[in-house]
Amino acid sequence: MTTINDAAGDVRASVREKYGQAARRVIEGDTAGSCCGSSACCGSTTEAWDPITANLYDDGEKAGVPAEALLASLGCGNPTALAELHEGEIVLDLGSGGGIDVLLSAKRVGPTGKAYGLDMTDEMLELANENRRRAGADNVEFLKGEIENIPLPDNSVDVVISNCVINLSGDKARVLREAFRVLKPGGRFAVSDVVVRGEVPDEVKRNMELWIGCVAGALEEMEYRDLLADAGFRRVDVEPTRIYQVEDAATFLTGSGLDSSTFAAQIEGKFMSAFIRAVKPVKPGTKLQPLPTTNASCCGPECCS
After folding, report:
1. Vertex 219, ends 214 and 220: CA angle to 5°?
2. How far is CA 3 from the centre of its chain?
3. Which end of the chain, N or C, is more open, meaning fewer C-beta atoms within 10 Å of its C-beta?
């Protein structure tokens, strides 16, 4: 009998293998491949159009980081541009990959601040540390570990960011509890992630290649909100940054083994990249603010008061 822990371990092993391959390709100078055999593995090392990863960083940001950091960018958003980082803050990037968001964060927090990157993949850590050296970023440190077990003390960082990584975890509730634990009171959770609105076919949910592509592992929006609230966060907000249409759906079904003509229409508009914000209360036990219900329909007198 397969347990939840076994399933989470299988996901973790697959993620480690595929993202290790992506890092090795960049290290070896092979930028012609994708990271998992499909065009939508939460980033690719190609110049081909990818509906998830395309056009996330502006020219100024690209110019300020090593090219290898950009080539290894496997995200679905740009959390550093949306997190409103301040001089002197301590930032932690969950699943930091080649280090692009850590390096950009380090610039924003300045020499009096610090940016940590956490990754479980040796090849990505090797690449990230080389990118740190090339960028001359003295206020950056990359840590080896799993996002379900963050190797930092309680109340030690001001901001937790992440770029299309939490949906890869087999235990997302634990990731969010760990993020809450390491944040200082008043600290901010500010991540980019793929989120689902509505029901999607079971075949998509079960498909491992799509999980590695940040699609099948995506949480439904209200479930994401509920897990953040359960972890202790308040002021939860989910802001769509890119909603995938039928053409995009057909692209990220490529290489999954699923018939895109059958499933693309069924998932059109249901997957989106989103910027997810939340705050750790300053005082323990602070009452959570009501969660936004912009997605809810009004179907009775009690829901429109």
Report:
1. 130
2. 25
3. N
Beta bridge partners of 191: 162, 276
Across the chain, mean pLDDT equals 77
66-113 pLDDT, tens digit each: 666 655 556 667 788 788 899 999 999 999 988 999 999 999 999 999
Residue pointed to by tokens 């959770």: 189
Measured CA to CA, the distance from residue 39 to residue 297 in angstroms comes to 35
Strands 234-243, 271-279: pairing is antiparallel
Which residues of the chain register pLDDT less than 50? 1-4, 6-7, 31-49, 51-52, 288-305
Q: Beta strand 183-196 with 271-279: parallel, antiparallel or unpaired?
A: antiparallel
Q: Compute the residue count for the chain.
A: 305
The predicted structure's pLDDT at residue 212: 55
HEC string of 138-197 equals CCEEEEECECCECCCCCCCEEEEEEECCHHHCCCHHHHHHHHHHHEEEEEEEEEEEEEEC
